[in-house]
Structure formats: structure tokens, C-alpha cells
Design goal:
alpha/beta; Rossmann fold; Elongation Factor Tu (Ef-tu), domain 3; six-stranded parallel beta sheet; six-stranded antiparallel barrel; 14 strands; kinase; flavoprotein; transferase; nucleotide-binding
């Protein structure tokens, strides 16, 4: 898979079969759309391509209250590259000028001149252009490419969507979110230096940089973490740490079981398996330590049972 930022014409690419969207989280609905795109592209002898945007348009229009983001661009590209889900990804900067582009100009300039679209597959609710005036009718009237709409994908009787994944995560339903995603939800980031309070109370933690201002889930969780030393089990806290700070910034801190190495500066991926509880404020550190001990014991028990089930 190859990824391109902005106008790709300088790379002398071939005409393509294209789909458009944010693909936040790349859930099962997205994956089935890409599978259909691959099938239609093969029938036409075309490479497959995805047009996506950075930042997410909803982040651009609601900067003071951005929606919870499921995946950063890096993780999205990595997942798309796995199993060759798509040949090209075009990442366009979503800014004020782009948001004001009339739908007809978007078709003419972006889809035809820049991307050389010959086949277009869109979601059944896709709208685009200034004031969202572009729709399936406008696209299907264009004689230069074939436009088809992908029907909604149902998972356990519900329409798979990034919004539904966010709702499941916010409710602590990690199993429901994993069912929609086809895998456990994860957050990736670099391990940063923190206050190092955990090591003074017997629970050293990896302070994972959060790529979003507002995470999609909060609380204390059983996790597995991909590290340069392999996959390790642990317990994680994602929230504002009200017992030890008044900061309004979210933090992701992970205590890895039976690990004594140094992860500073390393990139890790935290896979959320089960929610243990909501975040809480305690009167003193002794109460906090006692609760962490209970959380760690519960997490170890869950991971042991999971390994037994998988054996």
C-alpha cells in the first residue's frame, strides 16, 4: 500500500477504483466496503484507492468540543496496509478552503483531474462539498465514472458505524465494540516521562502519550500491550487521575505485569480487553494503592482465564 498527502498527480499514478470516507476505526462496515471495492476494481483492471481527510471534518467544525476519535492517521494507515486492504490511500488536508469547495468542483477537480476516478463506491448516506450539497444523485450523473452505493453492514442486527463504536466504548462495552471492529479496541502512542508516582507506590506505569484531546473511553481496564519486547498483560487507567492531580488533561497509564525494562521513547499499542470500573477519587494514597492492588488481581485473573480459553 502507498499513502500520498495532497494532490497525487506528481506521482504519475494510474486511474483507480475509489472510495471516500474518514474510516475512523476501520470497523467491519469499512472492511466489507474495501472488500467490495477490491472485487469491483479487479473486474475492471484497476487499483483500489481510499480518499480520507485529516483532520476529521467533525474535529475541524467543532474544535472546542471535538468528538472522540477512534484512531489516529498512523494507526489507520497501518491497519489498512495489513493484508493489502487497499493499494493507495490519498490523505487530503481538511481546512476552511476545502470545506467551502462546491460539490461540482470537487467532482471535477479532485475525483477526475487529481485522482482519475473510474469507479466510485460510497456509503449509502454519503454527502460532500460546501453545505453538504453533493450526494449520490450528483455523482451518479457524472458520465466519466461508475458510481455505486454500499448498503449498510449489519453486525448483530445493528448498523456498523464509527458512532456506534464510540457509544459502545463510552458505555464500557468493550465486547460490543470489538464485535463491531472485528478486533479489540486499541490506542497506540509513545511512552513518555511522567511524574513517576507509580514506582513509589509499588506500581510503576508506562505513561502513554494520548494522540487525542478526548479519548473514546475512560476508566480502569484489563489490557494487553504490544511492546518491542513482545505482548504483555497489564492493567491500565485512562482518565484524569483525580486523586493525585487537578489537571483536566486525560492520561493513559499502564502497569505491565512482571516487566522491569525501560520503554521510554518506545511506541506501544494498548489493546483494551475488559473494563473493571470507572475512575474514582480517593481520600489518600493508601486507599488508591489498595484499589490498584484489587484491580491488578482482577486483571491477572481475567488474563489467566483468557489464556486458558485460547489454549
Amino acid at each position: 500500500m502507498r499513502a500520498f498527502l495532497g494532490d497525487p498527480r506528481r506521482h504519475d499514478l494510474l486511474p483507480c477504483a475509489l472510495t471516500i470516507g474518514n474510516f475512523d476505526g476501520v470497523h467491519l462496515g469499512h472492511q466489507k466496503m474495501l472488500a467490495r471495492l477490491r472485487h469491483e476494481a479487479a473486474a475492471r483492471g484497476l487499483p483500489t484507492a481510499l480518499l480520507t481527510f485529516e483532520p476529521h471534518p467533525r474535529e475541524f467544525f467543532a474544535r472546542s468540543q471535538p468528538p472522540a476519535r477512534l484512531s489516529v492517521l498512523r494507526d489507520k494507515l497501518q491497519f489498512l496496509a495489513e493484508e493489502e486492504r487497499v493499494d493507495y490511500v490519498f490523505v487530503y488536508r481538511f481546512n476552511r478552503a476545502f470545506s467551502r469547495m462546491p460539490a461540482e468542483l470537487f467532482v471535477r477537480e479532485v475525483l477526475l483531474r487529481q485522482l482519475q476516478t473510474r469507479y466510485l463506491l460510497i456509503g449509502d448516506d454519503f454527502q460532500f462539498g460546501a453545505d453538504r450539497k453533493g450526494d449520490f444523485g450528483l455523482l451518479s450523473a457524472c458520465p466519466d465514472f461508475v458510481t455505486e452505493a454500499m448498503p449498510s453492514v449489519l453486525v448483530a442486527g445493528e448498523r456498523a458505524s464509527s458512532t456506534l463504536v464510540r457509544e459502545r466504548l463510552a458505555a464500557g462495552d468493550l465486547g460490543g465494540a470489538a464485535m463491531l471492529l472485528g478486533r479489540p479496541y486499541q490506542i497506540s502512542g509513545k511512552v513518555m516521562h511522567g511524574r513517576k508516582l507509580g514506582r513509589t507506590i509499588g506500581f510503576p506505569t508506562a505513561n502513554v502519550h494520548l494522540p487525542h484531546l478526548r479519548p473514546a473511553l475512560q476508566g480502569v481496564f484489563v489490557v494487553e500491550v504490544d511492546t518491542p519486547q513482545g505482548r504483555l498483560g497489564g492493567v491500565a487507567s485512562l482518565g484524569k487521575n483525580p486523586t493525585v492531580t487537578d489537571s483536566q488533561h486525560y492520561k493513559l497509564e499502564v502497569h505491565l505485569f512482571d516487566f522491569h525494562g525501560d520503554l521510554y521513547g518506545q511506541r506501544v499499542s494498548v489493546h483494551f480487553l475488559k473494563k473493571l470500573r470507572d475512575e474514582a477519587r480517593y481520600d489518600d494514597l493508601n486507599e488508591l494503592v489498595a484499589q490498584i492492588e484489587r484491580d491488578a488481581a482482577s486483571a491477572r485473573t481475567y488474563l489467566t482465564s483468557l489464556q486458558r480459553d485460547q489454549a
